[in-house]
Each structure stands twice: as structure tokens, then as C-alpha cells.
Write a structure and sequence with these properties.
Helix content of chain A: 25-40%
CATH architecture of the largest domain in chain B: Alpha-Beta Barrel
Number of domains of chain A: 1
CATH architecture of chain A: 3-Layer(aba) Sandwich
Mean pLDDT of chain B: 97
CATH topology of chain A: Rossmann fold
Number of strands of chain B: 10
Structural class of chain B: alpha/beta
CATH topology of the largest domain in chain B: TIM Barrel
Radius of gyration of chain B: 21 Å
Strand content of chain B: 5-15%
Shape of chain B: globular
Number of helices of chain A: 6
Distance between the termini of chain B: 57 Å
Mean pLDDT of chain A: 94
CATH class of the largest domain in chain B: Alpha Beta
Strand content of chain A: 15-25%
Largest sheet of chain A: 5 strands, parallel
Low-confidence stretches of chain A: none
CATH superfamily of the largest domain in chain B: Methylmalonyl-CoA mutase
Strand order of the largest sheet of chain B: 1-8-7-6-5-4-3-2
Distance between the termini of chain A: 6 Å
Largest interface: A-B, 26 and 41 residues
Oligomer: heterodimer
Strand order of the largest sheet of chain A: 2-1-3-4-5
Number of helices of chain B: 17
Radius of gyration of chain A: 14 Å
CATH superfamily of chain A: Cobalamin-binding domain
Order of helices and strands of chain B: HHHEHEHHHEHEHEHEHEHEHHHEEHH
């Protein structure tokens, strides 16, 4: 497959590092060029990394419940930076407390994310989706 | 300022104190003399060290949840519920993640949004923003001791405010709240900042006030071998005791194999008594954390994990256990789910309170191995510091002699790879630069080769990934997916 670059990281004041490492491993194994900006990543770092590397997608993780506040305005900032077409995914424990998944998903779709993943998603799923969204033929 | 494991003079402490109390406007409400007076009037049932001493004496395991929300009234309601409906013996206030990074402005915005939305937008209690008076409102509304639980590399102002606010226990340490909780903060810096916290507590002790200290045992919470977390716990215990801390609870996070976990709890206490022997009037207790890694989504399965942790805590005779909830896989739990985790834990603990795991060869072998490994690590730490444990610790992390698996900190070598053996005990697939003897290295190799053989594969990183997912997917050992 042709080289596609993705930027991934854990947004905000979140320090969950284990899944981040596993995701990197899984996406690399699936053939992607992975720029992993790690934990404690502000919106700007995702966007700067994507601009610098001419990335095809940004994958945002949030495990600690503040995702709703941390992701606010993310899409708009991408557009300002000239990344209006970049593919945007978000996943994890995105809100505080156990809430119905559908409204949470809707909320993040409304915020401009292309796909939203619930907790416990195995890496295979976003990998398959990303291949589809980026038009990668195997 | 040069880092040394040496008790700070009161002058040096007070000089830095002036800066610390100016980090956020609520700092100016801290008045040490008045706080001593306040603590002197606290009922004994609200003093953590007293409760822990009693539990240790009576050989019972106390239960404590994690919990915290953005607003004061809701926070009080939550803790009352956990006390009454969950039968919690000890109460927490879990601090939100913005406060942990000293982002008090974002915490303020979170408080505002929580008011507007009518639900907590923060994953914990922003104690610094709320200030001393609000902390006391929380303390006074309850009848159990309160502990601050967080994950803050620079926790100096938080300590000043919460301790003046009547909290009697403070979690964390310069390693356990740096390596798993920060990316770019040097170890030297957090050790200094935590010497400040320990010196503050030493200052309280000098004034007759008992404040308990608890290094955070589980570190990254994922397949951390006992000797790795024990080394960190003992170093933080030593650093705290040097600054005058008198009541210390050392922690360990459940790995999942009963024999290894009980051996870990017993060896932790025995090792700590040995290493802290020079500090005569220190009271040591232990805390066991129910499984800190990924949980099953299904609540019934989650109760299985919780109960197994409860059983291990009871059989290992931990002084207290920190409970998980059936919502763990989804993040922050509701108060009802939190209370359910507590009640199921209490049921198991009460059933097992008169039982213990009988000594047997396997238990003794595990204990011996954990002790050997921990001593080999700590010997090298002292050597690297020419006898100074603080300086040795900084150099040991540089050299990978101290190393924590899956940690975000760039000051951590990150060479370790743990994996489960055929019985589910956590072993070293790669021990990095840990200064282990050949005997120890071979022991781990043999255990993992045996598992590889029974699974028909070479032990490798895939095995580690399988183990990380295993409990969430319904088992302990990550067998190959067929």
C-alpha cells in the first residue's frame, strides 16, 4: 500500500500511555507511517504535527473523561491551519460517567470528527475504517 | 537547589513556602498555626493514621473507593453516599486531571461548565480552586477520615490547601506521581517538590498532628512486576521518613496470580521494615489496589475481577484495599456503581477475615524472589548515589536501573517488557538494565519459556499485548486468539 501518514496522541491533561503504545504498534504493523505525539498533547501539537508531516489523518485518544472539553474547537482549528480535508477520528472514554453511547457519538460527530469509537474498541476496527476512508486498496 | 536525602531546615522550607502559597489566590487562606488548631479539634474517627493503626492491630482490611466531582455540594453528596450505601471505611477525594497538571484556570472553567451543564465536567474534585474553607465543609459533613488521591507531579500547593482543610492522608510521591503521570518533568524536580510535601507533613508531625502518607503503589497499573513497584515504594518511604513523616502506607497493585500477589504484599511489608529500621517511630501499613489495568465492559464480569481483588487483599492481610467499580471500563463511575464495588468487596473481605493463605513452598519461593530482586535494584541505587538514595534514584533512572513499564515519562528508560507466565504471574520478558543476578534472569526466562511452550509460540511483544487485553476480554493470561 502507498505510504499514508497518521498523527496520533492522547489529548489534554490525560496521561494514559498504555493504549497509546499498543495503537502505535498496531497501526505501524498495518503499514501506516505513525507520528505519535504521546500523552498530554494539546490540540496545537496534533495540528502542527499534521501540517509538518502532511498527514492524512489525525487520531485523538481520550481516556479520562475530559474529552468533551479538550476537543472543543478542534475541527475549526484544523480548518484554520489548512487541514479542512484531513480525516479526524476520536475514541476512548470521552465523557465523565457512564452515558448512553449514541448521544456521545452524535456529540463528537457534530464537533466535526469523522468517526467516534467507544471504550474497548480493538485496533482492527479503526485500521479497517481508515483504509476505507483513505481509499487504500490491499 | 541541590538534591540530597537530608531533612530540610525549617528556614529553607518556609522560604519556598512563600512562593508556593502564591501559585493561586486560594493559597493565601492557608494559615499553619490555625490549621494545627483545626486538626487538634478533629474527632479521632477522622484521623487516618489512627484508623489504620487500629486496623493493623486487629488484622482487618479496610475498604476505600476513589471518588471526586467538580462541585462542593455534589462532592459531599457523593462521599456521603459511598459511606452510607457503600459502607466505605475510609474516604477519598480524587483530584481532577487539570489540577494534577497545575492548570487551575482550566479547572476553573470546568467548575463553571459543571454549574451550567448541571453535571460534573471534571473527573475529580478541584481542591485548589475551591480552597481551604470548602475542603473543611467536606470534612465536616462526613464521619470518616479523608485522603487526597491524585497524580500530581508538583503537588505542593494542593498539599498546603487540603491539609489545612482537614484532610489527614496524602497520596503520591516524587517517582510514583511523576513517571506514570508526566512526560517532561525531571525526576530531580519532582523529588525536590515531594521533599517539600513530606517536609510539610513532618512539620505537622512536629506539632503533634498525624498525617498519613501513601506512595502510589501501582505506578502504570499494567503488568508492573512486584520488585519494580516495591523498589519505588521503599525509596519514597525512605525519602518521606527523612523529612519527618511518621505514618506511611506502602502500596501494591494486583497482578492477578494469588500466590504472587500475597507474596508481594508480605514481602513489601517485610522489606520496608528492614529498610526503614533506622527511623524508629514510623508506623507502616499496606494498601492493595484492585486490578488497575483494563477491565471487562460487562458489569457482571467486572464484579468477578473486583471480588478476586477483594479476596487477594484479605488473604494477603493488606491494611486497606482500594476498590474498583463495575463501570471501570467506561471511565468515571456513577455513585451507585461505586458503592456496588465497595459492597461486593466488603462481602468478600468479611467472609475471609478469619482466613489466611497458609505458608507453602511456592509462596516462600515467590517472596524470596521478590526480595532478592528488590534488594539487587536498591543496592545499585544506593551505590549510584554513594549512599544517598535521592541522588542514587536520579542516576538509577538515567541508567535504567530503575525502570517502569509503559510509562509516559521521557526520564524513564522504558526498556522493560513484562509478560505473564503459564500460571499468570508477571515476569520479565525483557529486564532491560535492571541489575539482576544471572539466577534471577534465568528464573524469569524459564518461566516464560514454559508458557511459550504450552502455547506453541515464542514469547514476544504480541504476548505482552495479549496479556494487556486479557482481563478485559475475560481471562488472566492472554492466550493466542484462535
Amino acid at each position: 500500500m502507498e505510504d499514508k501518514t497518521i498523527v496520533m496522541g492522547v489529548i489534554g491533561s490525560d496521561v494514559h500511555a498504555v493504549g497509546n503504545r499498543i495503537l502505535q504498534e498496531a497501526f505501524e504493523k498495518a503499514g501506516f507511517e505513525v507520528i505519535n505525539i504521546g500523552v498530554l498533547a494539546p490540540q496545537e501539537d496534533f495540528i502542527n504535527a499534521a501540517v509538518e508531516t502532511d498527514a492524512d489523518a489525525i487520531l485523538v485518544s481520550s481516556l479520562y473523561g475530559h474529552g468533551e472539553m479538550d476537543c472543543k474547537g478542534f475541527k475549526e482549528k484544523c480548518v484554520e491551519a489548512g487541514l479542512e480535508d484531513i480525516v479526524l477520528y476520536v475514541g476512548g472514554n470521552l465523557v465523565v460517567g457512564k452515558q448512553d453511547w449514541e448521544p456521545v457519538k452524535e456529540k463528537f460527530l457534530d464537533m466535526g470528527f469523522d468517526r467516534v469509537y467507544p471504550p474497548g474498541t480493538l485496533p482492527e476496527e479503526p485500521i479497517a475504517d481508515l483504509k476505507e476512508d483513505l481509499g487504500i486498496e490491499e | 537547589m541541590e538534591l540530597k536525602n537530608e531533612k530540610w531546615s525549617l528556614d529553607k522550607f518556609k522560604e519556598i513556602r512563600e512562593e508556593v502559597l502564591q501559585q493561586w489566590p486560594t493559597g493565601k487562606d492557608v494559615d499553619f498555626e490555625e490549621a494545627i488548631e483545626y486538626h487538634n479539634n478533629l474527632p479521632e474517627e477522622q484521623i487516618m493514621a489512627e484508623k489504620l493503626a487500629e486496623a493493623k492491630e486487629e488484622d482487618v482490611t479496610l475498604i476505600q473507593p476513589r471518588a471526586g466531582v467538580a462541585l462542593i455540594d455534589e462532592h459531599i453528596e457523593l462521599l456521603k453516599f459511598l459511606r452510607e450505601e457503600g459502607q466505605a471505611d475510609l474516604l477519598p477525594s480524587t483530584i481532577d486531571s487539570y489540577t494534577r497538571q497545575n492548570n487551575y484556570e482550566e479547572a476553573e472553567a470546568g467548575i463553571e461548565e459543571s454549574r451550567e451543564e448541571g453535571r460534573s465536567m471534571l473527573n475529580g474534585f478541584p481542591a485548589v480552586n475551591h480552597g481551604v474553607k470548602a475542603c473543611r465543609e467536606v470534612v465536616e459533613a462526613l464521619d470518616a477520615p479523608l485522603q487526597v488521591r491524585h497524580g500530581t507531579p508538583d503537588a505542593r500547593l494542593l498539599a498546603e490547601i487540603t491539609l489545612a482543610g482537614g484532610f489527614t492522608d496524602y497520596e503520591g510521591g516524587g517517582l510514583s506521581y511523576n513517571i506514570p503521570y508526566a512526560k517532561n518533568v525531571s525526576i530531580e524536580q519532582t523529588l525536590l517538590d515531594w521533599q517539600y510535601v513530606d517536609r510539610l507533613i513532618g512539620y505537622y508531625e512536629e506539632n503533634g498532628i498525624k498525617i498519613n502518607r501513601e506512595p502510589f503503589g501501582p505506578l502504570t497499573g499494567t503488568l508492573v512486576p512486584p520488585s519494580v513497584s516495591h523498589s519505588v515504594a521503599i525509596i519514597e518511604g525512605l525519602l518521606a521518613a527523612e523529612q519527618g513523616v511518621k505514618n506511611i502506607t506502602l502500596g501494591y497493585g494486583q497482578c492477578g496470580n494469588l500466590v504472587q500477589d500475597v507474596a508481594a504484599l508480605q514481602s513489601l511489608e517485610e522489606l520496608a521494615e528492614e529498610y526503614l529500621a533506622d527511623y524508629e517511630d514510623v508506623m507502616l501499613t499496606t494498601v492493595f489496589h484492585q486490578w488497575m489495568g483494563g477491565f471487562p465492559q460487562d458489569e457482571a464480569q467486572a464484579f468477578g475481577v473486583i471480588s478476586w481483588g477483594a479476596a487477594t487483599a484479605a488473604l494477603g492481610k493488606a491494611t486497606k484495599v482500594i476498590t474498583k467499580t463495575p463501570h471501570e471500563a467506561m471511565g468515571v463511575p456513577t455513585k451507585e456503581a461505586n458503592a456496588e464495588g465497595l459492597r461486593s468487596t466488603k462481602q468478600v473481605i468479611n467472609m475471609l477475615r478469619d482466613q489466611s493463605l497458609l505458608s507453602n513452598d511456592k509462596l516462600e519461593e515467590e517472596k524470596e524472589m521478590i526480595k532478592q530482586e528488590t534488594k539487587q535494584i536498591l543496592d545499585r541505587v544506593f551505590e549510584l548515589g554513594n549512599g544517598d538514595v535521592a541522588q542514587g534514584t536520579v542516576r538509577a533512572f538515567e541508567a535504567g536501573v530503575l525502570d517502569v513499564p509503559f510509562a509516559p515519562s521521557k526520564y524513564n528508560a522504558g526498556n522493560l517488557l513484562p509478560a505473564r507466565d503459564d500460571d499468570g504471574a508477571v515476569r520479565f520478558l525483557n529486564h532491560g538494565n535492571l541489575p539482576f543476578s544471572d539466577e534471577v534472569v534465568e528464573f524469569h526466562q524459564e518461566k516464560l519459556e514454559a508458557r511459550g511452550k504450552s502455547e506453541g509460540r515464542e514469547p514476544n511483544f504480541q504476548m505482552v499485548i495479549d496479556d494487556i487485553y486479557a482481563i478485559g476480554k475475560g481471562r488472566l493470561v492472554g492466550r493466542p486468539r484462535s
